UniProtKB/TrEMBL annotation:
<protein>
    <recommendedName>
        <fullName>Sucrose-6-phosphate hydrolase</fullName>
        <ecNumber>3.2.1.26</ecNumber>
    </recommendedName>
</protein>
<dbReference type="GO" id="GO:0004564">
    <property type="term" value="F:beta-fructofuranosidase activity"/>
</dbReference>
<dbReference type="InterPro" id="IPR023296">
    <property type="entry name" value="Glyco_hydro_beta-prop_sf"/>
</dbReference>
<dbReference type="InterPro" id="IPR006232">
    <property type="entry name" value="Suc6P_hydrolase"/>
</dbReference>
<dbReference type="InterPro" id="IPR001362">
    <property type="entry name" value="Glyco_hydro_32"/>
</dbReference>
<keyword id="KW-0378">Hydrolase</keyword>
<comment type="pathway">
    <text>Glycan biosynthesis; sucrose metabolism.</text>
</comment>
<dbReference type="Pfam" id="PF08244">
    <property type="entry name" value="Glyco_hydro_32C"/>
</dbReference>
<dbReference type="GO" id="GO:0005985">
    <property type="term" value="P:sucrose metabolic process"/>
</dbReference>
<dbReference type="GO" id="GO:0005737">
    <property type="term" value="C:cytoplasm"/>
</dbReference>
<comment type="similarity">
    <text>Belongs to the glycosyl hydrolase 32 family.</text>
</comment>
<keyword id="KW-0119">Carbohydrate metabolism</keyword>
<dbReference type="InterPro" id="IPR013320">
    <property type="entry name" value="ConA-like_dom_sf"/>
</dbReference>
<feature type="domain" description="Glycosyl hydrolase family 32 C-terminal">
    <location>
        <begin position="344"/>
        <end position="490"/>
    </location>
</feature>
<comment type="function">
    <text>Enables the bacterium to metabolize sucrose as a sole carbon source.</text>
</comment>
<keyword id="KW-0963">Cytoplasm</keyword>
<dbReference type="InterPro" id="IPR013189">
    <property type="entry name" value="Glyco_hydro_32_C"/>
</dbReference>
Length: 507
């Protein structure tokens, strides 16, 4: 039933390419310590995030031949706790007529003890990557969660359905189970370029029946919805989407593409999703194509690609590109999704430092406290100050810093990377209310990234930054006196092991 050898050869060739290039990558000071990235070369979307046989598996879009996007493979890491990750052999490689130009994004699900992957087979039919493409949905299965065989029935969804549905842009299936049936939502657009999501149902993961256009853009939500994900959380149905082409509006939608959600109720009979407004999941620069799972403890956990299409990625010259966000736990509070780092991340903490009730006016540098891989938690009492904040990855000698500044008159928090070092610049702002005149920040720094969880996950901002390796300073500043009621910092240890370097090689 399963076709095998061409696929295995393509995987082995790719593994060799990675093995030959890993050394070049390992010395780079921008390599993340505790965020997932490739062993070498390019990464984009998280794929197939799943639990299987007591472990977490995360696959990702991967080009194992250069640090640029190219024909896509599925890279693979696994973990017992979402913190310590181990690289595994490439899971999917383009090898068949229907996926020759890429195994694009998709999802996995466990059924009868096997792990099934549903992904998009991509084939270029001409030179224009926007118009000349054929995308179909394809199935692969694994008994051990590591080695996958492609189905002889592929493609299991061989074309986009009829109707006001673009025939070619049809990708990124995300599966889930409801009752006795399997469902999947596929990213799509209408013939006149409005993003939409298509709902399918199946009994066996092989025969899929189109049910309906589950939801679509009202004209404001972009020309294509990539990487949809659907789940039930705290009494709500949630459809996460990554819309391409939304226009900037006030402080929102300034990245090339957006990632957010709409929530409401899915009618499993009609396949229609009634929902409210679109909301962002992250207000920084680098957050796209998030994917979620429900984990062993029933939590909803999300991981996203911490980069952005067409953004400058200085690490490419060092033979790698891209990283994942910290896994974030999602909950709903006052009808909005809030995201916080998974609890387990605290396992990485060491060298704790704690201060209480420190007053700051002007700028205060903590000489004993610095770093490039740490967590910093601070509760700031704003008192009467109108502007205040924190600078990280700071070097006075090099005039580098990454700035977080609160502006009370406008109730906006700004993340500014104009002086972050090499690479992309700019600033993003997000509305943030003080609670009891206090601002609470949890900041995660890792070599070439910053993630800021604001007021216990009410808002999040993520960005890649590329400071000099000596830029490690931390300072607080304020126009008038503020009090750092509690200020804690922990170094965070390395948590991603290179399977191949440590002899656990890709074979
Ligand atoms: C989203 C995306 C997906 C596609 C994949 C290709 O970032 O464009 O729609 O499947 O990346 O790598």
């Amino acid at each position: 039933m399963w076709i095998d050898s061409r696929h295995q050869e393509a995987i082995e060739r790719a593994a060799l390419s990675i093995r030959h290039n890993m050394k070049k990558v390992s010395g780079d000071h921008w390599r993340p310590n505790y965020h997932i990235s490739t062993e070498a070369f390019w990464m984009n979307d998280p794929n197939g995030f799943s639990t299987f046989k007591n472990e977490y598996h995360l696959f990702y879009q991967h080009h194992p031949y250069s640090a640029e996007w190219g024909p896509m493979f599925w890279g693979h890491v696994k973990s017992e706790d979402l913190v310590f990750w181990e690289h595994l052999p490439i899971a999917l490689a383009p090898s068949e007529d229907y996926d020759l130009d890429g195994c694009f994004s998709g999802s996995t699900i466990e059924k009868d003890g096997f792990l099934y992957a549903l992904y998009t087979g991509n084939v270029w039919t001409g030179n224009d990557q926007d118009t000349d493409l054929r995308q179909t949905q394809c199935l692969a299965v694994s008994e051990d969660g590591v080695h996958f065989n492609k189905s002889s029935k592929n493609p299991v969804i061989s074309s986009a359905p009829n109707g006001d549905i673009h025939p070619h842009h049809f990708r990124d299936p995300k599966m889930w189970k409801h009752g006795d049936d399997y469902y999947c939502v596929v990213g799509s657009r209408t013939k006149d370029q409005q993003g939409q999501a298509l709902l399918y149902r199946s009994k066996d993961l092989i025969d899929w029946h189109f049910m309906n256009v589950m939801a679509k853009s009202d004209g404001q939500l972009g020309y294509m919805w990539e990487c949809p994900d659907f789940f039930h959380l705290d009494g709500q149905d949630v459809l996460m989407i990554s819309p391409q082409g939304m226009k900037p509006k006030d402080y929102r939608y300034h990245n090339l593409h957006q990632a957010g959600y709409i929530q409401g109720k899915l009618d499993y009979e009609t396949g229609m999703f009634s929902h409210g407004d679109f909301r962002l999941l992250d207000y920084g620069f680098d957050f796209y194509a998030p994917q979620t799972i429900q984990d062993f403890q029933g939590r909803r956990i999300m991981v996203a690609w911490m980069a952005m299409w067409e953004s400058e990625m200085p690490e490419q010259k060092n033979n790698w590109a891209g990283a994942m966000t910290i896994p974030r736990e999602l909950t709903i509070q006052d009808n909005e999704i809030i995201s916080n780092p998974i609890l387990e991340i605290e396992k990485l903490r060491e060298n704790a430092v704690q201060y209480k009730n420190i007053t700051v006016e002007g700028e205060h540098t903590f000489n004993q406290i610095s770093g490039d891989s740490y967590e910093l938690e601070v509760i700031i009492d704003a008192q009467a100050s109108l502007t205040f904040g924190v600078k990280v990855r700071k070097s006075e000698a090099l005039n580098q810093e990454t700035l977080l500044m609160y502006n009370r008159a406008e109730s906006l928090l700004e993340l500014n990377r104009d002086r972050s070092g090499s690479g992309p610049k700019g600033s993003r702002v997000v509305p943030v209310k003080l609670h009891d005149n206090k601002l609470c920040l949890r900041i995660f720094i890792d070599k070439s990234s910053i993630e800021v969880f604001i007021n216990n996950g009410e808002k999040v901002m993520s960005a890649r930054i590329y400071p000099d390796q000596t830029a490690k300073g931390i300072s607080f500043f304020s126009e008038k006196e503020i009090t750092l009621i509690k200020f804690q910092k922990w170094d965070l240890n390395k948590s991603v092991s290179n399977g191949s370097i440590e002899g656990n090689s890709s074979s």
